[in-house]
Amino acid sequence: MKAIVKLAGLETKMFFRDRLSVFWTFLFPVVMIWLFGSMFVGNNMSQKTFAEYFVPSWIGVNIVTTSFFTLGTVLTNYRETGVLRRYQSTPLQPWKILAAHTFQGTVIFSISAFLLMVFGMLLYDLTLPVYIGSTMLSLLISILAFFPFALFLTSLAKNTQSAAAISSLFLNLMLFLSGATFPLEMMPTVLQYAAKVLPLYYVIQLLRGTWKEAPITEYGFEAAVLIGISIVSVVLAVRFFRWSGK
Amino acid sequence: MESVISVKNLSKSFGATRAVRNLSFTVYRGEIFGIIGPNGAGKTTTLEILEGISIPSGGKVEVLGLVPSKQLRELNKKIGVQFQATSIQKKMKVKEALDLFSSFYEGRTQKDYLIDLLGLNEKMNVKFDDLSGGWKQRVTLALATLHEPEILFLDEPSMGLDPSARREIWSLIRLLRDRGSTIVVTTHYMEEAEQLCDRVAMIYSGQLKALNTPHELLNEGAADCLDFKSSGLSREYLQSLPGVERVENNLDEYKVYCDDQQTTAYHIFTHCQEKGITLSDFKFEKGSLDDLFVQYVEKEKIG
To answer: Contact B104/A86, CB-based, under 8 Å?
Structure first.
């Protein structure tokens, strides 16, 4: 337990030591909301205002970027530079490393999400989530589904470059097909079905729903899908943890 | 003597490449055991099998009574490993790294002792990336020895270090041995093996070529020679002297490899004295493991 707390604390602290990456990590989502805001503000989408539609979905997208780009890239780099190799000859177990990085990712993500929400409230009259407990629970489930999923997928990469390629593919697919950026109603029926294969779709449904319409109990199916993904990817990430690129 | 590592008929293949072939040796408690060989000889592969990171293709390996590839977690509590050219997190401070690695082990660690011993006090708040090569080696050596490991594995510990940093690392390694660790070290610097190791295993293309104390290896290998200059001697005459193994010459500079330096020298001196031949720069050269190593590699090429 001592090791996991130390490692989680240190990894989080070290993230904030890299000022430049901190700046870009937190600026990106806010700029995206502002860009979409200048395009869509005033239009109602699926009976929601701009902010009610886009802020929850960008919080969802942020889970994806944090999991693939912050966590996935860092661990791939550790694998490449031999940081994980050094851990391999100590009693530290893989699940503790994954848990520590999940904690780090959760801290980074929470700050981004908070910034997005405050930005939405200041500029686009967003209100706090109506079912705030449900929203928090949805975020937790989403994190647990996405972080290990990304950690497993990027561990298949041989080096940082191919990890970045895997990450970009997944991010772009989900960005455009999950309803995060463009309303799904605009898309052909085939793509609407395709969207339902992507985990981000369920994250966004949960977040948008609990923000305005109903508590999480009304979204049992979406929650169940994410919990399922979470269990499978935790098992895969721990079972197939790779210590080195070889 | 109590054995801590026993390797019997070990082999390891990567596809068609046989990196290690039929290797057998034993390491005893409290010794500094060297594995030497050129780059690509199979040293690192052998070490990785002992550390349990790599699974052998054949043969039996026991480290501290455990099978490394199957009882890795148990083994990791008892061994320390200094890898070749691996890093820790660039932005981690020395103090943080020591704290973190200490938390991996149950019970007390010798952290404070190591900080004193390695002089890490002045570097505690420096980030790993800002340290020089020698300091990085000290820090990672400290990380590998925090839990007073029974066996310490060092893969090329002095690679890329300047001569004085290399000597410091050697004395630290000896000190750790004196505190009770058994040390297994790989190197391709023959000087390192000569200075540091109690026994040396010489590996070439995955096979064990020789195993003995550095001193005995040198005696067996007959790498001792006489080194001198003279214009009045012929190669044929020197070759004909009793006990001479081979003669190398470059114009009037000779190297005479022989079993018994004193007797051969006596023959040469008597001959020259009688014939009035001038000898200069006469030296008794002690062969080095370097010479021995070249001999083995050349034998391999011929055979």
So the answer is: no
Whole-number Å distance between alpha carbons of B48 and B280:
50
Give the closest residue to A186 by CA, choosing from A45, A57, A72: A45
% of chain A residues with pLDDT over 70: 99
Extents of the domains making up chain B:
3-219, 224-286
pLDDT at residue B300 above 70? no
Which of B66, B103, B111, B128 to substitute to test the interface with A, most A CBs within 10 Å?
A: B103
Task: Domain B3-219: give its CATH architecture.
Answer: 3-Layer(aba) Sandwich (3.40)
Q: Alpha helix (H) ranges present in A18-93?
A: 19-40, 50-65, 73-81, 83-88
Q: Indicate the pTM of the whole model.
A: 0.84
Give chain A's mean pLDDT: 88
CB contact under 8 A, A88 and B53: yes
Q: Could you please report the per-residue DSSP string of B253-275?
A: EEEEEES-HHHHHHHHHHHHHHH
Determine the residue type at A51.
Answer: A
Say whether B178 sits in a helix, a strand or coil.
helix
Nearest to B88 among A7, A11, A83 (CB): A83
ipTM at complex level: 0.87
Please provide the CATH number assigned to the domain covering B224-286.
3.30.70
